[in-house]
Fold this protein.
Amino acid sequence: PAESPWWREAVFYQVYPRSFADSDGDGVGDLRGIIDHLDHLADLGVDCLWLSPIFDSPNEDMGYDVRDYRAVMAEMGTLADVDELIAGCHERGMRIILDLVVNHTSAEHEWFRRAVADPDGPYGRYYFLVEGTPDAPPNNWLSFFSGSAWRWLPEIERWALHLFAPGQMDLRWDTPAVRREVADIVAWWLDRGIDGFRLDVINYISKPEGLPDGNAFVGQLMEFTGVETYFYGPRLGEFLEGLRRDGFTRRTAPASTPRRRLPDGTLGDPLPPDEVGVMVGETPGIGVELGRMLSAAGQDRLDLVFNFDVLDTPGHTRWDAYRYDPEYLKRYFLGYSSRLTDADWLAVFFDNHDNPRMLSKFAGGAESDPDVRTAVGKLLATIQLTMRGTPFLFQGQELAAVDQAFSGPAQMRDVETLNRYASLLAEGRGAAEAWAEILAGTRDHARVPMRWTPDGGFTTGEPWLAGTDRATGFSAQEQAADPDSVYSWHRDLIRLRRANRALTAGGIRWVRPERRGYLAYERFLGDDRFLIECNITPRPLHRPRFDGHVEPLLGGPRTETMAPWAATVGRVR
Ligand code: ISL
């Protein structure tokens, strides 16, 4: 492909602002902290930052409950800081996208307050406010954060829908004014210079007419009731096309644009503005085929979607303590590459702020050995950064971040975790059993502060959530100074991608996929060919024969035996 959209060849990096860097000692990360560390990200080589929520919020769900879409959370900074951050990214040749959480708003949003003040007025139609009696919710849908998805509002004698926490009120997208408001918010931020958005649970926005009950059998099967009625709702496609047209298509010139990155690594003049901001959909429950329907090029819906099937081996959820089956990862990517056409493109991710660390799931505890930790960190980076698709790194992956040894529920901060713990106890499960489940799956593993220096470096105060990892060698400072570190491996791979489009835009051809323990493929474009080989076992592996001369680039030459968890990248001559 001669030209591909910028986001197909980019490396994205997710920042969880609350835990990235705290510049003022209040224990909460902030925008100034991100600005101060932009050189870390530029040095790593990332092309686009994605910031988890920074908008004004009461933080019942850490910013995924927005009170004002045009204001910054006080503890994170000001609009002027956002402007400086945008300019700082663009100046370094990076783009930046924000998180758009519009399936729901906070109950403290002005729209919801007006809706409650006058449920029959225009704002009453912004939400799902359903008349009834306090003993019978309108349907059997459950909340992702435990209990019914409905909350009784005695002051107006109506039920209000919340698929997530009780303070996250679902918006009624069928109301045209809601769609206009959201499009205007997007346009407002694009004018400020933002390059697009990640769209939170965007596949849930179209609820079916009449809000029918979820199927009880499916509910049992999924251990969750109702989701099949709205996870790909009747008007989803129409809503996305409208949002793209009315919100993401530029109305005016942005405040700034990123500088062009030249092949030799230097920076050129600012690029012309992208005509459309990038739309990255967070789409839980959407498999390969529905994902294609939402993101195929030319459909004018989303540009990229996250497919969550990668996160856990079938038969397990993140609430089990288990060792991930790497053969499943291979089958997952094999399946993907065999079903996608040139119109489809995959977001490739292993970690985010909602899941434990993939490195720990893979190593299954063995990552307490620093050599295993380093090997698995490099292995996962190799797959993520050379697979066909757009990699989304989550902060800390470049430092081989692992799960934490939390000691008990008192250390937890996440609403999902705390609610789940309480409801397990209420079901009669013992405290030890309930804690084991929480410890395996809590979102707080990923949300602990970045380790900038051996003894922390995130804040001078008390961090809002404390990590427990103290292993030597895995802070940013130590990693950046070590040419053999997981950090350097990421940086080298990203440089290699940049210099060789075969690794980004090129095709993929699997090598000996039937061979257990061996995950290997070629990436190619024109005459350029690269061979990527991984030993996805904790044991040495005999390397299969390969027809062709391979010049080693990363991880050393093609020795007959591959070390446990080893990965190599070579150029095929
Ligand atoms: O963690 C989950 C609950 O088990 C996931 O289902 C998660 O809630 C889902 O992927 C949606 O996530 C997004 O929306 C949530 C927010 O809490 C998550 O942080 C966000 O990524 C509600 O806004």
About this structure: The longest helix spans residues 176-192.
